[in-house]
Design goal:
8 helices, Rossmann fold, globular, alpha/beta
């Protein structure tokens, strides 16, 4: 899915497959309690100011769109954005948000070569860390930690069970040939929980949690600048 020149129709099918995978694994359920708690604590300072959230490497935009739905349902004043290096993904995500009836600002940004934008309180990322080698991962984690008060990264955990689940699950959820290849490869390239904690330490994180969650994933949490 990361390869340049991917056929647009295949790219669209792969993004739709990723949306189904994210729906099945309910990544937003893992991060939402922490977002809600942050909102409750920091709204006391200035109730009129929205809490600003950026989803990094947003892909098809399903993760921030779900967060926007939750915010609307619970009456939270969140201003949500998402960025991705792919112009195609940004357009796909924008259309998806429009169809979903929520407001999310998507824009193009290669976070490995360009600095993260300023002014965000919370930074999230779902299913991106496993695409990065160690130097790239450390660089991104350091940048995200500097850019926001709260960082929430939901990703695959490398394991045999995870590989089997990815191989079988993606074939049940999608007909995308790109996703069929990308799923197991993603697990092979993923980090273990201990490795993720070590990456965060090397990136300068001081308050870190690595929380295991179903199915074969973890939530990496960094708090307080």
């Amino acid at each position: 899915m990361d390869q340049p020149g991917l056929d647009p129709a295949e790219h669209r099918r792969a993004l739709d497959a990723l949306r189904r995978v994210n729906w099945f694994s309910v990544g937003t359920r893992a991060v939402w309690p922490r977002i809600r708690s942050y909102h409750r604590e920091h709204r006391r300072d200035d109730p009129s100011r929205p809490i600003r959230l950026l989803d990094v490497a947003t892909g098809g935009g399903d993760f921030p769109v779900r967060l926007a739905r939750l915010a609307r349902r619970e009456g939270l004043n969140l201003e949500i954005s998402g960025c991705d290096m792919s112009e195609f993904a940004v357009e796909h995500a924008t259309q998806y948000a429009r169809r979903s009836g929520v407001e999310v600002n998507f824009f193009a940004r290669d976070v490995l070569t360009q600095p993260l934008p300023e002014g965000f309180d919370i930074l999230t990322s779902s299913l991106f860390l496993h695409h990065l080698d160690e130097p790239e991962a450390i660089g991104l984690l350091a940048a995200m930690r500097t850019a926001g008060d709260l960082v929430l990264i939901d990703d695959l955990e490398r394991s045999r069970a995870g590989w089997v689940l990815a191989y079988a699950g993606i074939r049940l959820l999608s007909r995308s040939s790109v996703a069929h290849v990308d799923g197991p490869l993603s697990v092979e390239g993923a980090y273990t929980r201990d490795e993720a904690r070590e990456l965060a330490s090397k990136a300068g994180w001081t308050r870190t949690q690595v929380i295991p969650r179903w199915p074969c994933r973890f939530l990496l949490v960094g708090e307080d600048r």
